[in-house]
């Protein structure tokens, strides 16, 4: 048995490949030059490097490899969909055909292009179940004030995620300080910290009808370290719909910086 992976930036593609290896499933990874971690070479049975935004070449190569199933994981900056830099003719035609350039619209459009050549795009979650968290306190304590801010923030985060604006909000004292847009989670947190000062909390949520093939929320040790360095108070995320990377390191950093981490 073999499975394909279209890998973007970050650690999620590596977690997928490690899990597939443990299950004795052969992997063929389509990696994006300058974006995908070279570490995919270590865990993949075969790696095919492709220049970013060369959709035509990717589809031709995918068909040639005779893969029945493929997953899509990892970050590709959304701002590139606006700049159109490096797009081949197929990619330009594809972008022009979309009703808008929201992240979900783009990814679902790519899924349709892949499935049109006879390859099924699968949910990667069966390879990543170990990254999901049940509801509960992972580190720290839930005070009454934090509970109020968390409930307020998660409600807003859920709404903006469902509108496909972003997945993250920064709140303080039941006030929205920053909303994630095209800049991404880290920049949103940095902007929120600058405006709120110490004691802010970060909330991250999935869409109301989250397609688990598309842009599943992800947090991890790096997120917590950023919040800690900027003197934030807590990270709240949606249980069983958010990937938590490097949990042991995340807990260590949470204790170091005095950050409460909760899956709700």
Automatic annotation (TrEMBL):
UniProt domain LpxI C-terminal: residue ranges: 141-262
A Pfam family it matches: LpxI_N
Domain (LpxI N-terminal) ranges: 2-130
Full protein name: LpxI C-terminal domain-containing protein
Organism listed in the record: Desulfurobacterium thermolithotrophum (strain DSM 11699 / BSA)
């Amino acid at each position: 048995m073999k499975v394909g992976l279209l890998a973007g930036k970050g650690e999620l593609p590596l977690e997928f490949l490690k899990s597939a290896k443990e299950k004795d499933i052969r992997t063929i990874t389509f990696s994006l030059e300058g974006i995908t971690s070279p570490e995919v070479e270590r865990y993949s049975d075969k790696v095919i490097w492709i220049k970013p935004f060369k959709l035509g070449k990717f589809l031709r190569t995918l068909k040639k490899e005779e893969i029945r199933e493929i997953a899509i994981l990892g970050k590709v900056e959304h701002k590139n969909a606006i700049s159109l830099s490096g797009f081949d003719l197929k990619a330009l035609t594809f972008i022009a055909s979309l009703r808008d350039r929201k992240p979900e619209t783009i990814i679902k459009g790519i899924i349709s292009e892949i499935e049109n050549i006879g390859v099924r795009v699968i949910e990667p979650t069966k390879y990543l179940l170990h990254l999901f968290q049940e509801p509960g306190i992972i580190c720290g304590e839930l005070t009454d004030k934090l509970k109020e801010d968390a409930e307020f923030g998660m409600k807003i985060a859920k709404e903006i995620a469902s509108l496909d604006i972003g997945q993250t909000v920064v709140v303080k004292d039941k006030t929205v300080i920053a909303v994630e847009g095209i800049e991404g989670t880290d920049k949103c947190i940095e902007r929120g910290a600058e405006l709120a000062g110490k004691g802010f909390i970060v909330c991250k949520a999935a869409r109301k009808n989250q397609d688990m093939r598309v842009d599943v929320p992800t947090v991890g040790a790096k997120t917590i370290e950023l919040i800690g360095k900027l003197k934030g108070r807590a990270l709240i995320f949606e249980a069983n719909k958010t990937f938590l990377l490097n949990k042991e390191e995340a807990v260590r950093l949470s204790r170091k910086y005095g950050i409460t981490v909760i899956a709700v």
